[in-house]
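haha ok so turns out i had the wrong file open the whole time. this is the CORRECT one, sorry everyone. sequence first:
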Amino acid sequence: MLFIFSTVEISAQENPPIPIEVEVRTSRNLNFGSFTAGNSGGNVTVSFDDQRTVDGDIFELNFGQPVSAALFDVYANPGTIIQIEDMGSYPLINQDTGLEIRLLINSFSTGQRTFVTQAPNSQTPNEVFVGGTLQIPSDNSGNLPGNYLGTFTLNFIHQ
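then structure:
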């Protein structure tokens, strides 16, 4: 009787994952341009593709700063899944009167808040254009005109 017994053990370790590093740089600020509001208020919207629309008692003015969506350059490895998270509406304050209007971030060039990076490498930016809506309140006090300043925060979360 001949018995042949053999054991083969193969061990392998998968390659460690590519480190996921995401860097986001602001390249252009969101700007609603110039407009005037009547007593009833309304909304001014700038889409991700720089198109401004108004509703309610708002009238567009075609002078001053140009209308523009915000532009964020996202640097990440190709194929990285990114989710954009914002914190709701943001206050913008009139620098002369202290009156507050609200900003909603609601327009993304990615089509939705989750996207996969497409740039060929981590040194080439993935451009994300972001637009929003200003909610202009009704006002009969004359405190509405002026320059408004504020900030909004977006979190770019990688998965």
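DSSP finds no helices and eleven strands in the chain.
again sry for the mixup
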